[in-house]
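ok here's Pirin, seq below lol
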Amino acid sequence: MSNVEDHPAEQTVCSADAGVRSEPGCELLRPREVPLGGARAMRVRRTLPNRDRRMVGAWCFADSYGPSDITGQAGMQVPPHPHTGLQTVSWLLEGEVLHQDSLGSRRMVHPGELPLMTAGSGIAHSEQSPPDHAATLYGAQLWTALPEHTRAVAPGFEFHADLPRHESPQGTITVIMGELDGAASPATTHTPLVGAAFSLAPDADMTAPLEPDFEHAVLALSQGVTVEDVAVPAGAMLYLGRGRSRVSLSAGTRAQALLLGGEPFEEDLVMWWNFVGRSHEDIVEARETWEREHDTDTRGRRFGPVTGYDGPALPAPALPNTRLRARGRYRPR
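and the structure came out like this:
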């Protein structure tokens, strides 16, 4: 997953609270469109990693998609593929997706529910719209990087259908990961972080408290989202830096956004395809193992088969001709 933007991100100036460390200034990160699961698959908006801003806290990957009319289409069809060194966070606003993994987990995911998969040392999973899927598919796929001391933890899957929420006439805030304004998600985290979904009513103006030691960003999932007086197009992310004690979101029409944040992740990472490691050798080993194991009946596999999926797994792409390098959370200017 060597994702490098062709053009620098557009810069937007905004300030943090005085007297509290903030680094660097705000940035409007624009997404690029990529196929999900193959050249003929549905297309998504990929915002992280960005050219200059690779992470927000431990959040290292952010795709958003829809709302898409998939009437008469296959919708999301991602064959079995591997992961290492990360957690996957799926968030649906409309539609449904069937999750299956090599632990034997099988869940139909609906809007407002959290399927959290911890890859750790290695796991494989598939994601599919069911044959009788709804007409619209709309949501986001996110990853968090695991820190060094847990990056090889045993893989796991947890499912949370009842997440804490703050409700008001202005809209709803659902706490997906971590804690926000006294409401804590039951989801397992490996670094201090927060993830929350904002559903804004028409003409809403919502304010939420933030942890000043965290860096934060807001990912717009629909048009019409304004963050700290900055218009953020659908699929774009406004990085807010560190040192903020609150954030303000507004919208003229009903709108959706995700707040992502956490303690700055200071470990350098190698991110390639679906693997997160610390060195070129980590990635080579994971890729070789996947190529050796997938679509076989080998016992004692690192990734394991995805039972219940009807079709072949995704082969790994070829490695580049140069060594993969570990990189920090942002590119200094």
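fwiw The longest helix spans residues 280-293. kinda neat tbh
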